[in-house]
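In these records, each integer encodes one residue's backbone shape. Here is one protein:

___
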Amino acid sequence: MVDPLAQGLADVVGGTSAKALERAFGHRTVGELLAHYPRRYVHRGELTDLSALREGDEVTVVATVRSSSTRPMRARKGSLEEVVITDGRGLLTLTFFNSRWRADQLSPGKRGLFAGRIGAYRGGLQLAHPEYQLFDDETAEMNAVERVDWPIPVYPATGSLQSWKIAGAIRVVLDVLPAELDDPVPMEMAATRGLMAFRDALEGVHRPHEDGDWRAAREALRYQEALVLQTALVRRRDQLRAAAAVPRRAGALLSEFDGALAFSLTGDQVAAGETIAADLAATRPMNRLIQGEVGSGKTLVALRAMLAVAEPIALGPGGTRAGGQSVLLAPTEVLAQQHLRSIVAALGPDLAARLRPTLLTGKMPAADRKRALLAAASGQSRIVVGTHALFGEQVSFADLGLVVVDEQHRFGVEQRDALRAKGGETVPHLLVLTATPIPRTVAMTVFGDLDVTTIAELPAGRAPIESHVVPLAERPGWLGRVWDRLAEEVAAGRQGFVVVPAIADSLAEEGAEAVPPETSPARGSSGDGLAQPRGPGSDADRDPARASSVESTLALLAEHPAFSALVVRPLHGRMPPEEKDRTMREFAAGEIDVLVATTVIEVGVDVPNASAMVVLDAERFGVSQLHQLRGRVGRGGLPGLALFVTAAEGGTLARERVEAVAATLDGFALAERDLALRHEGDVLGAVQSGRRSALRLLSAATDGELIAQARDDAIAIVAGDPELVDHPALAGAIARRVDDEAAEFITRA
């Protein structure tokens, strides 16, 4: 039997409309169009007497066209179409811009239904670009007037494909759809939850007679969406767990490492280590997310897992097999280099000599790169730390047992999968580290696709960090105090960061999160104490859309009296690798007082003497980035200070992001806030966050309880019917909803 929802749109709505829908939204089938749900519903005003109109009223009128005309506009190019309608008691002008065809369509004598908001123009009242429906005959008029109180669905639309055109196509599809459809939600589950049938829900969501219709329809469709996605996730999770992995068990290497530690592990670190040890010892691959606060010791937990993987494997009486390899994927060269130095220092000379930690990045000299590739391929290096260069075809491993991804939101799903595929016939264990879960991670966690471990306890010695918003929109003079405060920290023997979103005026940092700023006033110059008003935040007539940069900030600080005797250096992603590495080593050694940097220092940079951070144009960074950046200070027992300088107006979303970060040090609370602000991203694709969500009616930010209920139901269904033989409608919905590409993303995420 042919699935009616899989039918091509061209066969139902015609080729022209089908091409327009595919071009605008990618819809090719009846099911895809019917899943294009209204984003809201509006009500027409009561049928209104034209003689009783008032500005601002939402009206719907039945009227006859009295006259129509077209004339060129005076102030700009284009035409203005004016149509005068009458109901026999009054007159109303309709105006359209650059729509000459409407003058012909709305010719005198035509009768129809006209709806919109009354506006005022040159002392008269008008409807600008109203919605209308012309009557072909008396019966059509009676039907239209009868439906005037029905809620009007408003669809996500484009400039070339308006909401009413989408609604028209959906009406055509609904009219030919069978009276009954197989429901993906099993009958007993629908009955238990009081959900309307699938066919009724489609009718109710697209052609409601009253508000209660679409509300009940959305409830049924939301649960159906949750069940379909959860069932797909549960099945794919079970398939992944059925893959083969080499069990890895800790032994002498980890014992030696733990015995040499100069501090005690926190309770959360111990618990995380035990959980990971159990995962590694299993024959199915680990797929675990470690989420922990900035500075909570996630990297140490990962290093202990690497030591378990590196442990030789006993094969029988007197026989052993060499231990496996681990790879640590870092988002930047600076961080990869820092990770390597930290790992070597943590291991100590003896363990480091035996495990041979190796660096592999894209900008290494050819000879160094060749040696690193050989060490990885031969198995001589048990720990390889690198960047995107690890994905290269030339990179291979003798026995890859563990992939550790640091700050997973900096990598696409395909990239992580490409690295994991280097394990050969067996699947390496996967450990993902993140300090602040980004929206997509939170969404996937809600959907239960990852095993999650949380490290909330901070190691002893972590000092508190004071965070303050410097609101230049209201207090432009405070910028001078920002520089004074930074200079005071340095005078006390400490160091500081100044973080900016760009390298130069026309050069953004590579890989930056690129949160667009909202419209803000230019920053003022009063009270900043600077000799030359040219730096970021210092001149009144500066373009507010221009981001602060490393280049301009260095120039500004060079002219500030308080910084004249200080060593101020740049750090950004376009510097040569050796220069970046040298700069970080000099900063860590205390030879540099202030580092003016881009987000290249966002994660992993650990300089205990750095106590202060100034973030310019803070509204240009995301919640996660600001929290990560702040975590670079207060790491050595010294109280930290973070000053978020922003020109965003109070009450804007941009300002709200900055204030949210300043208000709390709780990264998990910020993750939830980030999810609410940015949405969950594409949980079935590569999109990490933003409005292009794969979710249609569900929201991971608000529907966690519903999703959890659907997951329980999905687990029960799959446990009793793994291949969904007894649930063909659910299997069909998964096939329509989760295509091959999306299914692969689920498996690899």
